[in-house]
Design a protein that fits this description.
Length: about 200
Amino acid sequence: MRTLVASKAPTTLAILAMLACAPAAQVHAQGTVAGTITMNKQLELPNVVVFLDGVQGTFPAPDKPVEMNQHGLQFIPKVLPIVKGTTVNFLNEDPILHDVFSPDPCAEKLNLGTWPKDIVRTFKFANAGCRSVLLCNIHPGMEGWIVVFDHPFFAKPAEGGRFTIPNVPPGKYQVKTWHKKVKSKGAPVELKAAESVTVDLSL
């Protein structure tokens, strides 16, 4: 007959198993902030960024660069929200020269020079809170924006002004918006584990 002896401490394998499960449990506990944005100038909705204020913690930039294109004498997208430390690839799909620069100190007054079609220039935005305008020396009517956050909890409205910010840790936040001209007061939310809350904002 076998005698079973109760262990007073978890085995090494048991500890490793618990550690392996921890990230999955944390992800499961995260929630979602969603809602709809309305504004008088509906055509400006794609140029709005919704974000959470009051986020705690440190968040790494993505490993892969993101893209800001130039096509039809326009920056596409016109507004690009990113996490601090993200590298942006600046493309040129026009059959003419473009020159990208920013006068803003938070973007180190970047000047990427002039380049033709199918050439890519890159720049890493290192300062959270930076709201950097992008301009072209050759085409004064061109304008774009890079909006830098210290966390990944932001979104741009889809069709109808709907937005979703997923994988948000539980906590108390202010849901705010950024637009180059229109400001909102924002709205407070308290998100519990694995919860989804809805916030509607009017600009």
